[in-house]
Amino acid sequence: MSVIRKQSIRHTLVNYIGVAIGLLSTIFIYPRAMELYGLYQMVFGSSLIVMSIFLLGFNVLAIKFFPRFKDGSNGHNGFLLLLIKGGLAGFILFLVFFPLVRFILLDLLFGHNANRDLFAEHFMFVIPIVLFFIFNTLFLKYISNFHKIVIPTILDQLMIKLVLPVLVLLYLAEMINLKLFFVFVSLNYFLVFLGLVFYTKSLGQLYIKSNKSFIDKPLAKEMKSYSLFGLLNALGNQLAFRIDVLMVGGLVSISAGGVYAIVTVIIDVMTKPAKAIKAISNPIISEKWETNDLKAINGIYQKSSIVLLISGMFIFLGIWLSIDDLFSIMPNSEVIRQGKFVVFFLGISKLFDLATSVNTQIIANSPKFKFNFYSMLILAVLNIIFNLFFIEKFQMVGAAIATLSSLGIFNVLKLIYIWVQFKMQPFTRSTILLLVIATFCFLVCFYLPVNFHPIVNILIRSALLSLLYFAAVYYLKVSKDFNESIEGVLSKVF
């Protein structure tokens, strides 16, 4: 867990720099251009869904099979070149099926939307963005095998956080039009690709050579089977976690999609530690499965759960306690305020997802990896059905209710499956203790009589919450890893 903790802390720090930039942009810039931001989210979300199909499952092969190919003295037996060839094949297939992709996303999803023509006019930008998404994803997965995720995170996530608000401001100042906006967005992802290539080279892991003799028929058959389920799992994942923004944009309006996306940025702060821990845990769990070390895997499962719940619960409480004050300082606050309960329902869904920690990674790297596909398929189908039903009744709030419902069922299924198959579960007594601490802190801060300027109210409640929450978590020893991290930081400061 020490490697996971060390890398995830660094990863999280970088992420929160991006979060700070993203939140400032979300609060003060994006609400001034909700239609533009909504259109960006339509193009971005469409590209992610398309990419998940045409990666052809090579993103999961990059983690699962690297331990088999790993051999630095022999260029890892051509593993990187295999991934690059797979990415190129996927992109060529995407170009072949592009007319069908365009029909599904434009004519089916946006067929009756007044903003269809606006989306259609800029839909061609999906092509370069998908290209860079494919190769950026493959290089990110490949690099994670060497337990290096900090620099790739800066390139992949921080750059767009810096570039996007600048582009929005340039658009608002009428210095660029919509087409130039998307040209620069595409250029950003191209620069990320170049950065990842050069970073791989700096690690001494840029081996562009083939070793076809290494892949025998049994290995090839196993890889094909795993990649197929990986492809379907990735598609299900995008349909489960990205389709809500697209469906709000398609079934309500692009502006409503922009509001939903803005509110989602706020609640997504909760997931940053999870992305760090899951990214670095994935290859380690893969290695532990190779030796069938179930005890180590269960240790990662439980320790990750409580650490993620500690951070996620704190962030959710901080957001929900100050949500009204936060909305009041945002441009177009009355429009943005429609997303208040989007924050609540999405926040609850994220908390349960964090509590179940690395369950997807455990199943994906196990001999029972196919279950991930079945459960993800159930999640995707439920999410689409729930979105169609709840968006019609409750507009954008309905999309959040749909996510809570489908994600809850999804995680319960995986919890039960892991317990039945491997006798592992993520919860301990510390989980109950943390819930008690969180409830106490919320009640104290909620009933605190503050009626000052919204920013002052936010600062007062946040300060009190931080003091009560972290003091209780530390002194009641809810998590050994959390305490060791705090003590490590304090020893460096003092």
Question: What is this structure, in a nutshell?
Answer:
The chain is mainly α.
Question: What this model shows, in words?
Answer:
By secondary structure, the chain is mainly α. It contains 23 helices and no strands. It has helices at 2-28, 34-54, 58-64, 66-69, 79-96, 98-108, 116-121, 126-144, 150-172, 178-202, 217-241, 243-251, 254-267, 272-290, 294-321, 323-328, 333-336, 340-355, 359-364, 370-422, 429-446, 454-475, 480-493. The radius of gyration is 22 Å and the shape is globular. The model has no long low-confidence stretch (mean pLDDT 86).
Structural class: mainly alpha
The major sheet is characterized as: none
Rg estimate, integer Å: 22 Å
Q: Spans with pLDDT under 50 lasting ≥5 residues?
A: none
Please report the total strand number as a whole number.
Answer: 0
Content of β-strand? under 5%
Give the oligomer, counting copies of the same chain as homo and different chains as hetero: single chain
H/E series: HHHHHHHHHHHHHHHHHHHHHHH
Please describe the topology of this protein:
Elements: H1 2-28, H2 34-54, H3 58-64, H4 66-69, H5 79-96, H6 98-108, H7 116-121, H8 126-144, H9 150-172, H10 178-202, H11 217-241, H12 243-251, H13 254-267, H14 272-290, H15 294-321, H16 323-328, H17 333-336, H18 340-355, H19 359-364, H20 370-422, H21 429-446, H22 454-475, H23 480-493
